[in-house]
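Can't attach files on this board, so I'm pasting raw text. These are the components:
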Amino acid sequence: MTNDIAIIQTALDSVRAILAEPFWRRFDFWLSFIASAGGVVFSIMAFSEARKAKRAATEAGRIVKIQTVAIELTEIAQKLGSMDTNIQFNEARDLLAELSRRLRRAISAFAKDPDLGDTIAALRDALTTAKKSLNSVRPADPSKEKDVPHAVYYAVESDFATINDLVADLLGLFERKSINMGDEDAKT
Amino acid sequence: MPKPDAGEFLEYVKKIGEAARNGTMEWSRANPTTLVHTQVGPQRARIVIQRVDRPVREQSPLGGVRQRVIKQYVFQVTQGPANIQMLSMDGSDDEHINQALETLYETVSQSISRKGLDFLKSLIPPDQPK
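---
Top answer:
Structure tokens for the assembled complex are below.
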């Protein structure tokens, strides 16, 4: 019986000694702490990489959009440069309506962009002015429109030249924007 | 087409203006900014004078770019039913020509308006005596 008590006493003393020891001296504590800290660090790294990837995807999407708009503007510039001197009023009206619709659709998303805003505003003004110029040669008698050759062409050629210049300016600005975005991607 | 003598052309422009003023040359308005004189008979011809409002972009004193509209005039003479161009003068090439064409345009425009008002007047019944 005395032996049993002694054994129990010894066991209790061992347990007391273990419980009295500070937790930071224990090996299993540090093992689990290091594992947990590693998990947190990797989570933070994964979050950061995911955010960078999202930013890169957004920028890539913007570059694609800019390139799409640039292609549209190039087609419009070609159409502006090929106007016939014998163009009639209804042909000019249809051409201006098509160009106006395509241009406004292409540029509207960038209207508030600080690099592009001024040029876009000037382009919108030029389209409005072109419409006024065309209205100034609306024929009183459409059957006699051929009596005044080149009247429609003379009325709108300057406006179309202005629109063409502004479209060229926009193309240059879009190209610069694409290059800048590419450089920023390379840096990150 | 080589450019015609400016001095001679300006003389003719002055004579056309006088003819329009005294009614010996009839003009009509093809559209809001284009005036036409048509000559029928053996030498069928047309004289066309058109006002063109050309936008000019220039630097603003306050910074940025502003748009200004300048009035220029185009003068054409065509022959026959095929409208073969015999003469074409653009006011943007010479300021003196542009000013002369502007004067002609205003003179012809007023004669057309006068003709329209006289026609309108002819439609209105005379005042009945009281």
